[in-house]
## 1
Amino acid sequence: MDIITFKNFSWKYSGYRGWTLHDINLSIAKGEFIGIIGKIGSGRTTFCSSMLGLIPHFYPGIMEGEIIIDGVNVEKSSISKLSSIVGLAFQSPSNQLTGAGTTIEEELAFGLQNLGVPYEEMHKRVSEMLKIIGLEKFRKRSPFELSGGQQQKVAIASVLIMNPKILVLDEPTSQLDPLGTEQVFDLVKKLSKKGITIIMSTNNIDYLSKFADRIILFDNEVVKVDTPKKILTDIELLKKHSLTHSVITDVSMKLKKYGLYHKDLIIDFDELKNVIKGMIK
Amino acid sequence: MASIGIISYIERDSYFHKVNPLTKLLILLCVIFMSFAINNFIFILLLLVLIIPIAIKSKVLSMTFNPIFKLYFMFALLFIIQGLFHPYATEKLIDLPFGFILWKDGLLYATYIASRIFVMMVFGYWFVLTTHPGDLVSSLARIGLPHSIGYIILTTLQIIPRIGGQMKTIIDAQRSRGLETEGSLIQRVKSFMPLLGPLFMGSVQQAVEKSMALEARAFSAIGKKTSYRKTEINFADKIIMAGAVIFSITWWWLSWTL
């Protein structure tokens, strides 16, 4: 069953000449993990923002076509209504902390307060969420005292606590160090296993290749939608859109070049490991 | 929060920390009322006798009084200006060199102002030190404070140290590009100017992102909001409130009759 549908969707920011996104037609099924890749300015953030209704309700511009999220027409709905279906976390870890609470638990509870969730249930949900993100010990700390990775986890958790069906992550690891990146990806992996539909924009293709069901390549329009293997091993396509392939793919390319390996290019570390093991034997 | 250099809530396990913020706010309002309505500075200063046991019980005695002693310069200036230049002064105290006169009624007027400021500030500090901003906003929301105003109160305290941090980053970035940020006062004022552009632009950008984050958390949702903090007015609060009102009216009446 499709939970997200884009029908002939186009968007132009007011004051800009061209379309940031043009003629997008997409269907995303419930529970899918979708990876979004594309160069800077390819419209990935716009795409992510559109699912929560920030486009067209927050940013001024011209919209064509329609977006249906869990049966709700985004254009006819409001951001606050959509926020109970879609959770959006974006790049900067600290800027998306609302500062509405002086502690992590209050930061997490903020969305629930706005939705009018009763006191007892709110406390229960906050405790559960703290367990999921592994920050129970820090519940009374200020979110601004945390590391970038921990802040990003709080930011993701604070939208997740509102029980959205879809979690949209716009470059959540671009400002994080390797440890923070791993923490965020671990959390996303956990959520994906729980059946939440995940849309993740990132150019960290090593991680995407592991977790994503499908990858969408953007360049102000949908260039290609396919499995991670098909997209991430299409070197020409990636190059054309200013993207690089992963180190794993690169190793398999070199092996192919030197005639040591003859099959399809590899994106998975374990697969590469097995190939090399086989060669050694 | 203590590191931001402005007085803020201090976590303590005391009776007054648990008292409803509205009760404490009413006490503060009563003190403000008494400070202005009472025309006898001895009655005003006697209110300090009240705050000492309250501050001890709240475990914030030194913090309640310390900040105000740092304002000695302001108080000294008040006495000097009023003592020497009070516009309606008639009663001379002493003649000073260079033709200056120290006026008795000027000093008396300064004493009134100083005692009012002192008492209000001490009670104000006690209120801030013992009241968690979240509890205050939550209880004010219960009596009709708009949701958005509550957010502004809460977030302001957290934004100040962040802006300080950003200023430091910008200064460091500009220093590394050769901008002179130290030296004479004029030099420092000059170096402050190029700081404003990036700081302002950065703040605007942050405000946009923050408002998106707020929207993503249903900030503009219509309907009843709830609070993560429980702030209820119990019987003891009602007794304290009634006591504060009765005391302030009685004290005011006594100051006029005695």
## 2
Amino acid sequence: MSLSLLLPWLRAFAGRRAWIALPVGALLAALLALDPVLGPEDGLGSYLAYAALFPAVLLLRFGALLDARRRDGLELEEALRDPAGRRAPLAAVLAPAAALAAGLALCAIPPTFANLPPGIAETARHPVRISAAGEGEFRADAGGGLPRGSTLLLAFEWERPPQEGEQPALFATDGREVALVPGTLARWPASANEARRGVLEWGINSDARAAGVTLLRSMARIEVGRPRRGDLPRLLARQFLFFWPLFPLVLLLVRRGRSGGLLAACAALALGGLAAADPRDPPDLPSSPAGWIGRAVLELKDLLPDVRGLAAAGRGFELRSGTTSTAALAAWLGLGVVLALAAFGRRRPR
Amino acid sequence: MIRTLLLAWIGLLGLAGVTRQVDWPGLEALRTLQGWWLARQFDASALHDDDTTLRRVGERIFLLTGDSKALLFAADRVGFQATAPRPGLHGAEAREASRWAVEVLEGHLEHLEDPWEARRIQAFIIVNRQTAPSLEHLGLTAASAWFAAGGGPSWPMTIGEVYRLGLTLTPAERAALLRGSLRILVPEGD
């Protein structure tokens, strides 16, 4: 792969304005997200949300560049130079990847200079749906995979105190047990399997049932650890993995589908939005046309690998961050590779 | 043909965004920025004792970002601190503010990050302030839930001891114990 093919792309991505706009934007994002006085507790999530603007804009820029190159006849020129038609599309795949990696690496720098708000709690708590799974048995559904070390916080009302010899407890079929004490929150740690599935199941033993224990469902919460500032490079690397396959998709749509670059970039962004969608309360969708469309789109989402953990950003990002399984990641990146290979064919004339 | 399909795809995902089931990449940044702006408005209204804005912006921050701290602060400030008996405070005004705080927390209880704190605020308001008699039962429910949870993860263990003591009493005595404890726990000056 010759640098002479990559350099025009990189030069086009990083015009003078981009080199100024990106560091200034990243600095501004760090100032907004990590304000030591009024900054939100999950400032890192806010910063990631701002940082995600860069890949989105880069994708649109990529689409616009493909349009511009076609208008300028550069593609025809490359096709004449390289009749096999492999090197030019390879450059078009590698250049945005390099620009994306460089830009996100730059985004990792400003937060190191920011002061995080003092007294940030190390954990965050999120609502979880609880349903009965049998007599004295319950199921908590977090709607997707959970980070390792997640713990379910449960509160119970009691009719009477436990009698001598009684040992009220929560139990699981795999032998785990947690003692129940009136007037304290019960902490039920998710096993590795439960965290992967995002579903926790437990039962209340007979001693607890005899004491008239009632679960306060509306007060059940899942507690997850907050990523620290040192985790930022890893979180940004996940954004890279999430956004990269969208670039070959744009290239494929433009080269083989005869689509306009910007339109293809918007379609790729829409696919990214669908892959990253994290519906909180699907059953609450309104029974309006918008609700029906929402439901139909969620059906489509099941066809894609679950990469929500790669794209997690903003408020509550810690709930999904890092939950993408290796298989889903391999499928997502594999999709990108397949799209890139499919785009390598010669462009169809318009 | 492909152009039409792509436009339909973009339109479909755009409409799905209306129900917030799908967030387009980068849109979270706009929501975060709006949350940042609302947090400044909230801070300014807290400094200037503008309770009307405090209520409105606190709930808006919660609905927009899911951050319930502002809503809990607004409920505590408007429903509890601002309704402490003082010369010039109208009873009807205090009751309306208390009712708003209790009801807004009840309405959002299942989605708050810290439901224990919401129960504490509800119980403190209903037991220690002038509220409608129809809220009496909710006050006892909230107090019992708060004590049963030991006050939540950030309260000392002593809160749970009150609950354990209450379990040994009759229902009427237990209710009296919880109410009495809530009165004792009120911060000085309130």
## 3
Amino acid sequence: MYWWATCLYPFMIVKNTELNTVLSGVIIFTMNYEPLSFYLNGEKKEFPQNNIQRLSLLHLLRNNLNLKGTKEGCSEGDCGACTVVVGEYSFIEKKVVYNSVTSCIYPVFKIHNKHIITIEGLDKNGELNPIQNAFIEHHAIQCGFCTPGMIMSMFALLLNNPNPSKDKIEKALSGNLCRCTGYTSIKNACLDVSKGKFKKPEFIKRAEPILKKLAKEKSDTVFSHNIPNSPIKKYILPSTIKSALQYIEKEKPIIINGGTDFMVPVNRGYTPLKTILDLSGIKELNYIEKRDKRIRIGASVTFSRFISFLEKENLLLSLKNGFELIGSAQIRNSGTICGNIANASPIGDSAVILLALNSTLNIEGKGGKRRIALSQFYLDYKKTALKSGEFIESVEFTLPEGYASFIKTSKRKEVDIAGVNSCLILEEEKNTIKSLSIVFGGVAPYPIKLFDVENIFKGKKINSETIRKIAEYCFEKVKPISDVRGSARYRKKLVYNHIIKHFQNLLEKTNE
Amino acid sequence: MNSTKHIDGKLHATGKARFVRDIPKQEGMLYVYPVLSSIAKGEIIEIDFSDAINIENFVATLTYKDIPGQNDIGVMEKGEPVFPEKMIEYYGQPVCAVICRDYYSAIVCAKRVKVKYKEEKAILNLKEAIKHNTFFKPELMIKKGNVIKGFKNSDHIIEGEVHTPIQEHFYMEPQTCRVIPDENGFTVFPASQSPTEIQEILAAVLNMPINLVTVDIKRVGGGFGGKEHSPTLFAAICAIASHKTKKSVELRLLREDDIMATGKRHFIKATYRCGFTKDGKIKALEYNISANGGAYADLSIPVLERCVLNAENCYNIENFKLKAKAYKTNLHPFTAFRGFGGPQGTFFAEYIVERIAKKLKKDPFEVRLVNLYKNGDTTPYGQKIEECYLEHVFNKIKPTYLKWKKEVENFNKKNKYKKQGIGISPIKFGISFTTKGLNRGYALVILYPDGTVSVSHGGVEMGQEVSTRVASIVSLILGIEIEKIHIESVNTKRIANLPPTAASTAVDLNGNAALKASSILAKRLKRIAKMIFKERFSIDAATIELKNNKAIAGNYSIEIKEIINRGIWDREKMAEYQFYKTPHITGFNKETGTGKPFYYYVHGIAISLVETDMLTGGFRILKTKIIHELGRSLNREIEEGQISGAFIQGAGWLTMEEMVYSKGKPLSTSPSTYKIPTIADIPEEFDIEIFESHSKKASVFGTKGIGEPPFLYGHSVFFAIKNSIEEFTGKECNLMPPATPENILKAIEGEKE
């Protein structure tokens, strides 16, 4: 129990504050409630949990620690102004990885045992970091409100990859909005600093062995606080599935993992949630397993870790874009694939792909494990087959043979929610259809797989006539609604066109 | 001077630059949050605070009854309340507010206030408003030549309707204000482009003399017009809360409430009739323009004014007739937004020119060329065209255009579902406030005995880098390096009676005032230096140069700080307060529809090449080339930054940015539903060329205003998309902005709106 060694810190921290805080420090200690313990810009910090005033990391930074360099632009993780970097040990990659996160929707309790790096940590002894210099040199600063977040996103990218491509830079920064520059100068600054000008700072390196050690020593942590009007009273970070199940039984909590969704209404002053159970600290859930053609993704695997895995193993490259188009880098760094499935969005990108891959879910609950086909999982709008107290332990699928393609149509290329998205997986034999899997998102209360399509078109020759018939079939089958992202009529039209485009892509591929 | 870096670049890059919310908290500071209406129109029957006052950290409620002075924040036209006493005019209008000890409690508390309404039928779109004929006065009119004759002399006549969409500013820093009570008044820290407007209106709202209200603005996290009038309402709420509680109070809107409740770019519709010859020469153009003005007059009339003053864009039209009205509807107000009506007016003209080219099966580049303004021509409102560089920029870009045209032809032959298109967008944008009296600038330059300089001027820094640019002017004149120059906040006790920082005029007006002030000081420094040279080196310095913090005469030099010291003790004035007014302008006369409203015009041209996916309606900007005319380039990086930023904002407006409403309720109120461009949306190849015309009709050091004009280059992306669709369908399409995938697919199918 590492924190016994540092448990005196709360007293030292509160020394210069009022007496009652010291007393609450004693209470924390005797009740076995840990102080929030983390590294901040290379220095160890302990923060008494009773002093936590709000749920976002951003609030802790700005209001409690008086670090005002991190800005708040939208309070929902979609503009990037509040981006900071979180360093933590990855059990998948077996090293410390650096993730940009939007601190406005990052639950503050998640920083326990991690390294938080903010804009204030980048310059050391008056010397600027090369990214900061590049932004000044290239005039990549206008009103300056987005600048700290922009620099932190670039910092996270370079910590993981000191020589990123133009494409990687765009992917890393597309979650950081800027309304002044038109991005040209920002892009130039980032390209410049990517030419070997960046070195991992010493203070980052120094913290790495400690982060590794802390990750392996994890124990259950329960934070409880009673701040005015807070919708959440207790935050539980269990360290094993077993203890998670016990807490679930006892506390009936809301179960989260990446937590990218639940903070949005909280920041807006809605929804009393009371107790949250956060699965992200459970090592047993943080794995990607590959056996022959079978892939199994644990509940705590984020999009970023899964994309890195696909790139490293050279797998599923034709569908990788589907995972890369989910949210921003910051969201992919926190959000998990299983969380995206459980969230049951009618338009969830990963659900669409995983449905097309005929995935199976492994579900944990007090009654033990059970398996369910993903296609059986969605029952209605935002309704799933998860029973109370259950969570998805993992999702698994077999790597497809043949051709796979994912298309997403949205107003904006990056960081947008689709009007319609679709995935098509096709095996052919002598130019006839051997197997065909088609899934659409955005056309029904949940992503739907068109099961009949395989039966109807199996054995058919792949030609423009067949393609048109498949498109017509899909067009007739779907019954979308109109909303802020598009009208029903438009969505139906897209369904037709997506089929044409999938085959068009296939054709281009075979011609290459 | 061309390599001058952002004056606060280091502060921003290290996170030390302070925005309103970053100013250290005052002891016992409170937070106010408005309660926004949940209907578009109706009567307030009852406000029930009972649930709200029970929450922890609650302090007080705020209603119109707490307003000590006038309940009106209207500027151009009165009748815009802080809190309506009876009638709700738009969804999201602040009804009342709550004050709590912490920000989060205030948000939660505001949600618990229950307002009972008697809902009435609202006017939710322009069509209904036109039917009711409810509009803000006056109607605008411009007339030149005789359109009836013009139509008679035309070979072809086209007519139709075209509109431009609503746009949300999406400045990165949401509306924020801090009010601190003084011993007998208030100091206000708003994120606003209009320090004087806030000072004057708050004085009236608080019922106190103007000299007891101090407004202080160091910087704004993006404005674009969205912080010209919109912040006044929220500053007023914040000030009333401070007045009631006698405490410092902060107000900051959540993003969704910011988008819900604040003004946006006007939706404007034009019906047109255009006659032209078989060569494409326009003989007559007749417009009927209608703007959705929203619930209150706000800045609708001046915006409409600039719209009509730009409705012919770059083209000399002999016979021109225009009528325009801004209609009242039950939507949030519509307000200033970069270009201020200009983007709408010019879009109409370009849309018509594109149609002429289609009709005549001519190259749209050539049709534009045939109609371009030349020196000596006169605009429909009677301003003579002088120093026109349109033909020059057209000829300069022509080789690139022709090269791209070939590439596009080749590509389109080879591809079935992907088509490319080129769009063209020339500009001739007039600079000056069209209200003559606003064209004034102020600067106060103070020299200190250590050789440092303090500069206060009337331009609010909001990312346009007016600070850097004014500092570089002062630096050049005084010979003092820029590191020794500090640009102060705009504080209405140092610099007062200001126009809003707007209309691309901040550097012209305040830079010229700073130039005057520093020139006077430079002259004075040289006089004192001459004396020192004589005393110390026994020379009679005929010419003295101020450079590198020194006064230099031949081989001799003296530190400027020494001269300042000497000046102070010789009882010389080591500070200057100066004023500048734009010469030779008359403003626009709304009665006659004429005037010489602009000191000069900025010229330029953009071409964009896009590739559109005809199956999904998605597009990519492959290339953009811009040639932008400036009298002289003063700071290349800042100018390119303004051009790039404005272009992307303009392209966003006509493509991906779409405000969606349901019964007057804005639905796209967050970055997850209102999409502004990201780094992945900019042209893959982007070339900005600055053409220094050395025009005499330019401003400080021969420069020209640069904030707004490049916004119009975004039009080129829209027309490129439109042309790519027409390449696919083989006929003219009726694509209207925004060119979202949905609208693109509709246009491909030839659907009517």
## 4
Amino acid sequence: MQASGSDEAGFAQFQEELRSSLYRFDCPDAHTLGEYELDVLDADQRLRIATHVVDCEECRVDLRTLRDFLAAPTHIPESIVERARRVVATLLTSPPGLAYGGLRGAAASATRVFEAGDVTVTVGPGSGSGSLIGLVVVGDSSPEALGGRSVRLLPRHGQPIHSTLDDLGNFEFNDLDPDQYAVEIDLPDSIIVIQELRID
Amino acid sequence: MNEASHSFGAYVLSYTGSANGMGLGELPIGELARRCREETLRFLRGEPREDAFCFEIFQRAVVKRDDDAWEAIVTQYRGIVLAYVGQHTSAALVREPDDYWVNRAFQRFWSAVGPDRFGSFPDLPALLKYLKLCVHSVLLDEVRSRRAGSVTSLDEVPETARADSDAERSAVGNLSGQQLWDAIAEELQNEAEEKVVHLSFARDLKPAEIFQRHPHLFASVDDVYRIKRNVLERLRRNANIRAFLPA
């Protein structure tokens, strides 16, 4: 005998209700299963779940998914890691006569002042040829807080050259080949970038 | 997209000094957060890092239930949790705003790790691994929930229901499911019937999949269909079982 349409609909609905009420009812929730994997459950719970997992293909699949997920290195998009913290400094035209008192030995005529937010970077030639000196000032912060921070000089060709800020915010590079360089200065919240700096 | 791969656990230095002459426990939360941020950036550049500052923030948040410390954790690790979400295979199945998953993952971490459990986490990598587990479990719970057919989108879940803790919802669901199953089990006459009903509804398998798993119990896939139909007709007429189901 053919079942009526309404009877079939009722039959299908009954199946849906059973599925909705019973689906994975006897499985540990995903978090408990995860704690089992990380071995942070007490002995009784651990035994209970181990027993369940032996007979439950779906939980074994969930465990494999979790293991793969935990083992995979985390891909931090560059937008999160880099772009948010790389700040390009802009060149300022400085009023004549401004004292670069903190910049050791630089000739004022050749100095350049860059600004990025409350960070000011003054750079200029050092005493010898192929040398570069600079001074970093961060808002009202004390210069001691800058001591030891990394400064990198990136030539167009070749490897980066590393230096650090001293406890007055100074940095220095010597024996540089003539080239066009970029400068990166690591600060607590950002990397300040000077994109083009010509050393003759 | 240029991506950097990171796995917490490498290049760990141990903090033995002090900042401005203060011990780690005396540092104000703002200074700790600054140092934690700095060390995390250092790590993301592949340089050796010092975990003690970030770990101290977790300790204050979890053990002392310090709200400011918790806020610092959320600020510091939000981007990493977002990356975890994007990386999970289930994220594409349960599309919701990223912030929703980030908030739920942190909420689950907060609920699951109290002062009594903090000692189970010896270092920062262990804490971050647990945070990653929280991302996995909130996503997988949602996948299970949707597969059961209870909701199609979180937008359809009433605010009052969302306020219930995940654990509470899960416990209630398991309890009623177990009671229903006990009532059903009384009506089943043999192992074949039990497998058919259990795998059909508790595991959502098709008759062909059930036959594949237990070929010794059934003559054919059609046999599975026949048994399923007969049992369901019987269960449908059972008032005791219907009482467990929505009217």
